[in-house]
Structure formats: C-alpha cells, structure tokens
Amino acid sequence: MQKLVEIVAGVTSGSTTATAVVEEHLARIKVREAEIHAFNLVTADQARKDAAKIDEDVKAGKAVGALAGVPIALKDNMCTRGVETTCSSKILQGWKPPYDATVVTKLRNAGAVIVGKTNLDEFAMGSSTENSAFGPTRNPLDVSRVPGGSSGGSAAAVSAGFAAASLGSDTGGSIRQPAALCGVVGVKPTYGTVSRYGLVAFASSLDQIGPFTSDVRDAATLLEVISGHDPMDSTSIPQPAASLVSVLDQGVKGMRIGRVTDLPEGCEPDVLARLEAAFDAMRNAGATIVDVKLPSLQYCLTAYYLIAPAEASSNLARYDGVRYGNRVDAADLNAMYAATRESGFGEEVKRRIMLGTYALSAGYFDAYYGKALKVRRLISDDFARAYKDVDAILTPTSPSTAFKFGSKTDNPLAMYLCDVFTIPTNLAGHPAMSVPFGVGSDSMPVGIQVLATTMGEQAMFKVAAELERAS
Amino acid sequence: MSESISKETVVKVSRLARLSLTPEQAEKMTSQLAGMLEHFRDIDALDLSDIEPMTQPYPLKNVMREDVEAKSLDRQEVLDQAPAAESGRFRVPPTIGFDV
Asked: Is the bond preceding residue A150 a cis peptide, omega within 30 degrees?
C-alpha cells in the first residue's frame, strides 16, 4: 500500500505524477474489484481528469493542496454533486445530489482525487456490509470473511490498495470496526469536529465522518484536512482543527493509559491477548497503566439500540417518494408512501425504523427512549470520572476478528454485539480510533481501540502512533 | 419496562412508520423486536430517577446565521432528481385518498 504522505511528497516534488498514481490505483481496482466489491461506483474518468489538472498545476508551478494527487474513496452516504449517491439502498438508487458534502469540497480543495463511492450496509445500519442492497463487500485479506461495517467498502478499498485513503462515517463503530477487521487505521473524531453537512443522516447525535488510512500519520494528515468549523452544520464545534501530525513523534512517556477492569464480556481470548500486548508496549514506552471502572458500559447496547433507531426512524421519514429517490405509484399519498418505503428499504432498515418508531410512540416513550437518554448520561459520566485519572484508554476495537459471511445474519442481536466496544464513544461524543496490532489465532488482523476524551485527539494520536511503532 | 410486544402493536407501529408489512413480515418482526426488547430489560434494574437525559454529546446552543441573501440549491437541479415534478413543484398523488 502506498502511503498518502509519500504520494503528496512525490506529486508535489515532481518525482511522480498524480496521473501515474491514479492509474496504479485504477489498475488494482480493475484486477480485484469484481471479487471484492468495495465500490458502488468507480469514477475513473473524472479521477483521470482531476489528476491531470493537479499535474498541470504542479508543472505550472502553482500551489497544490495538502492532499495533492491522493486517490481517495468516499463512503456512498456522502453527497457528491451530480454523482450518484445511494447509501446502498434501492430507495436512493439513481439519485444525483444537487450539492457536495463539506468534506467533499475540502478534499477537492486540498487536491485529492476521488476515485469512487464505496459500498456500505444500507443507510450505514450494520456491522458486516451484508445489508447492502447491492450485495456484500468481501474482506480483501480473506474473501470468505466480511470486511466489517457499515463502512466495509471504505475499509476494503484501503486494505486492497484501491485508494490511498477513504472516508467513512461512524455512528456506533462503523469506521473503527471495519478498520480493525481489514487491518487498516480508522478514526472517529470528536462529535462536531468534522462537518456532517452532506452526510446522509442516520442518527444525528451520533454520526461522525472520519478517515481510513494504511497508517497513523496518513490518518492524522487527512483528519487535519477534513476537520474544522462549518456554518452549514449547526452541531459543528466552533474551533479550529487541532494539529495532529505534530504530536506523532512525541511518544507516551509519562502518559496515563486506562485499562477498563469491567469490560463487557464476550471478547475472544486471542483478541484480549493482543490487548495485553498493547498495554505491555505502552508500559515499555514509559506510560503508566491505570485501572479504570466504567460500570455503565454494560448498558451501552441497550441505550444505543434505542437512541440510534429512534433518531433513524425520524431521519428516514424523508424517504417518502416525493423529493428524491424512487417512488412506487399508488392511488393516494399515504398508499404511495407505504408502497415506496416497503419496496425501497431492506430488512435491517425496516427493523430499525420499527424499533425506533416503537420506542418513540405514545405510551412507550418514557419506558424506552427516555430511559435510554438517561443511560447515555450515565455512560458519559463514567467516562468523565475515568478521564480525571487517565489521558487515554485502550480496549479491543471488536470482540473478534473478521467473521465468515452469513454467520450472524439470522440473529440481529449477535450482529449488534459486534459494536459493544465502539458504541460507548459515540454515546459520549468522544474520539476513538482503531490501530492494527498483530493478528488473532486465525491470522486475521486485530485492532486495538484508543479512546480519549472530548477534543482529546492529540493524546489519542500520540498513543496510536506509539502502538503502531510497537506493532 | 412494559411486557413483550404483540403482533397488533407491530402492525400499528408499521402504520405509524408508513411501512406496509405482509402478515409474514409482521410475524417475523414481532419475534425479532420481542427478542431485542427482552435484551433491553437490563436497564430496568437501574435507578434513573435523578439522572438528567442526555440528548446530544456537546453542549452547543442553537445558532442562527446572519439574515443575508446567500446562494441556495438550484431549483431545477433539485426537481430533476424528484420522482415527479411539474411547473417548478414536486408532484404527488391525491393527498385525500381512500385509505388513511
């Protein structure tokens, strides 16, 4: 895999060209994409034009951006003007957004070359990319296994060398879990760090865009570009983006790293062994390991699977066959709504809309949604207490390595358990990232998750960089 | 927390969500939702009476933009992507129908 920072250095200095770089990636796509299915759409022609423009600018001595010539893939729930954006759902198939998401504008301004739109679990609901209406993505490291999800296409695209980096979205682990399963780096920034304008909403209080890359330095570089306040997103934090690349070589000497003593059960022993190895690596690098208790963590699945579907049931009400996407005609408006939604949504999306509508409905609101919001507070308070004693926390990213296709599709709850370590950070709004750290007993990659408090990206990246050096 | 979900409730909720489920789908959905709701009972044991609900992670206030003219989406570009449009508007089937 070619590093993002090397591509930028090569293109900027003239030792390679953006065209050569994009052709290499398109060639790899040509060879393996039929097998992997990372993309819903490969925008090869536009990518070639964009690369040629960068090369012209370099030749003419014009200033090029921080991502000059870097081939980047976008999860297909980010709006690209005039380019089909489907959320891997039949209901949006064929839809060409009339505007670009803020992250897309930022990437273009920085000179990135967008190579395509990646596959996902429909509307980002799932942990294996098996819920895509257009067929699953396969894990490039073992095609009999899932890439994780929901941003499985974005993770696979980086892992397979189809793109030097990609963007995903993370509502309950949808960047970090597929990053872990595909052996790449994946970051969910602090809620409000990256603009959600143009990201198709799943659960608005949890959704956050972040990068997939092949290493920590690339992730820091890309995150610096896409972060920052955006007036188009009312939940965007009004502060400038943090400097991340500058902290990568600082080490972890003197840092306090948390070990969660009451981690939810169900994690495979080989994954836990890698976690212990990660703590050893931190200790060897001069950090202190501190035990922390997060007693409310055991309730995170309940809180999340009430809050996220509740928000989704509201957000997905807009797919009604009126303003965009597909319509199934019927005699009157209500019948048209129901026929359109029945035919357009897949099973998992319907299940979550049903769960959310139920949790919000009269008579059940206090018992479910109201309680879930209070549990969310408990989880957030647990973290606040823990972060008085530690600078970062390490956990596994996922309870297991990449699993086989079909092994969890009949049992929604078993699939939901994949997110048990990633969900708490979304509920709290904190940053977290997954760093590859060795392999499990099946030789598939294990990801270690680095968690930090709100706006704690610098501490998180210091620890992640140290983990990477030790891996 | 309340008792297990009934098929009648599932059918009612599906109507609220504008999803038309077949009887078989309603049956399957009932058993899957019941399984999840059963799992969700774990929070019943918690005393949450003094806990403030948390609706969003970052304490932000509502923001208003300056009341100045700005470029908005191109109307034709938006309407071109609609399932049906006419005279600068979205076209929909009769709103007063036979089955509400």
From this structure: yes
What percentage of chain A carries pLDDT values higher than 70? 100
Residues of A labelled catalytic: 75, 150, 174
B40 contacts on A by Cβ (under 8 Å): 302, 305-306, 368
User: Which ipTM was obtained for this model?
Assistant: 0.93
Which CATH architecture group holds B1-45? Answer: Orthogonal Bundle (1.10)
Residues with Cβ < 8 Å from A407, sequence gap 6 or more?
A: none
Contact B10, B35 (CB under 8 A): no
* Sequence letter at residue A150: S
The shortest CB-CB distance from B13 to any of A301, A330, A361 is to: A361
| Total residue count of chain A as it appears in this document | 471
Check CB contact under 8 Å for B51 and A367: no
Chain B residue numbers touching A353 (CB-CB < 8 A) = 17, 19
Q: Read off the pLDDT band of A7 (50, 70, 90).
A: very high
- pLDDT tens, position by position, for chain B (100 residues)? 445 899 999 999 999 999 989 999 999 999 999 999 999 999 998 999 999 999 988 887 888 888 999 889 999 999 999 999 999 999 999 987 655 4
Q: What are the boundaries of each domain within chain B? A: 1-45
Place of tokens 């769960």: A355
Contact B90, B82 (CB under 8 A): yes
Domain A4-243 architecture: Alpha-Beta Complex (3.90)
Q: What is the pLDDT of residues A96-105, one digit of tens each?
A: 999 999 999 9
The owner of tokens 């191109």 is B74
CA of A331 to nearest chain B CA: how many angstroms apart? 7
Q: Which of residues 43-82 of B touch A (CB under 8 A)?
A: 43, 46, 48, 51-58, 60, 62-63, 65, 73-74, 77-78, 81-82
pTM for this entry: 0.97
Task: At B19, list the tokens.
Answer: 């999803």
N-to-C CA span, chain B: 31
B7 touches chain A (CB under 8 A): no
The string of pLDDT tens digits covering residues A151-163 is 999 999 999 999 9
Nearest to A225 by CA among A307, A388, A97, A111: A111
